[in-house]
From TrEMBL:
PROSITE patterns: ADH_SHORT (PS00061). SMART domains: PKS_KR. Residues 6-184 form the Ketoreductase domain. This is SDR family NAD(P)-dependent oxidoreductase. It comes from the Bacteria. InterPro entries: KR_dom, NAD(P)-bd_dom_sf, Sc_DH/Rdtase_CS, SDR_fam. Belongs to the short-chain dehydrogenases/reductases (SDR) family. The keyword Oxidoreductase applies. It comes from Sphingomonas tabacisoli. Residues 259-281 are annotated as: Disordered. Residues 260-272 have a biased composition (Basic and acidic residues).
């Protein structure tokens, strides 16, 4: 498929994967709508990739603002639900409000935005919904119970939505499962008390370049893949192992959980272990 002339709405477009997707889509002739919380950052992305892009800032969980945002975006050919936030805390220490924030941002917000654009796509019998989930949407890894719950839920919603609208109305649905990508996702992650972590992770710092991630996503969309796994090494292996040998995967991940529990008992700060490292040990 061609992206030339398509109107594509990207959330979380001010940095990371979202900004890289904006650049990649613009290079292939798409007309962009860029959303995120920070108008200035969105303007910087637009200035770099497409000066006439529509900048549409809003908070993903501002439920009252979402219908207005969808109306301003107008009919879109593709909605890319990319905005989200991660987590770095053990379940035993995590406050309920942290789970609420994660579920609302990573699951309810993309679901509701999709519900707002979906009727128009159904009426036109054309359109495309893309959801950026995560390998953590398949693999329940340590320090991310709320994040994993939301990302698992997003995959379930999109899989069920695809079943309802793909053949009946010609609306395509693509789920994307990135692994570690060099972004601020870890630094911006929520800790047990709801504070922002502030520091990155070794696995994120050593992750895939966002431009490469975006390239693989666009290639997968062009090839009409329904699910695109953008991961390497142990993370890609873990995503496959979830189906081929889940018991083995559960044992391996439990080792990482045991190590973090021992750190916690010593009064230390539990640090994320790379999935690839866990699978080797």
């Amino acid at each position: 498929m061609s992206f030339e002339g398509q109107r594509i709405w990207i959330t979380g477009a001010s940095s990371g994967i979202g900004a890289a997707l904006a650049e990649a889509f613009a290079a292939r002739g798409a007309r962009l709508v860029l959303s995120g919380r920070r108008r200035e950052a969105l303007a910087e992305v637009a200035a770099r990739v497409q000066r006439d892009a529509l900048i549409l800032p809003f908070e993903a969980t501002d439920w009252a603002a979402l219908p207005h945002a969808a109306a301003r975006a107008g009919p879109v050919d593709m909605l890319v639900n990319n905005a989200g936030i991660s987590q770095r805390s053990l379940a035993v220490d995590t406050r309920p409000e942290v789970y609420r924030a994660l579920i609302e941002t990573d699951l309810l917000a993309p679901v509701w935005l999709t519900q707002l654009v979906l009727p128009g796509m159904v009426e036109r019998r054309a359109g495309h919904i893309v959801g950026i989930s995560s390998v953590a949407g398949r693999v329940g890894t340590v320090l991310r119970t709320g994040y994993c719950a939301a990302k698992h839920g997003l995959i379930g919603y999109l899989d069920a939505l695809r079943a309802e609208v793909e053949q009946a109305y010609g609306v395509r649905v693509t789920t994307v499962l990135p692994g570690s990508v060099r972004t601020q996702v870890a630094a911006n992650a929520l800790q047990a008390d709801g504070s922002v972590r502030g520091d990155s992770d070794a696995n994120i710092d050593a992750g895939m370049d966002p431009a490469e991630c975006a390239r693989r996503i666009l290639n997968g969309i062009e090839e009409e893949e329904r699910e695109i796994i953008v991961a390497e090494g142990g993370e890609a292996f873990a995503a496959g192992l979830r189906f081929t040998d889940p018991e083995r995967l559960f044992d391996m991940l439990s080792k990482a959980g045991d190590q973090l529990a021992k750190e916690r008992e010593k009064g230390g700060r539990p640090e994320p272990a790379r999935v690839s490292q866990t699978l080797r040990n």
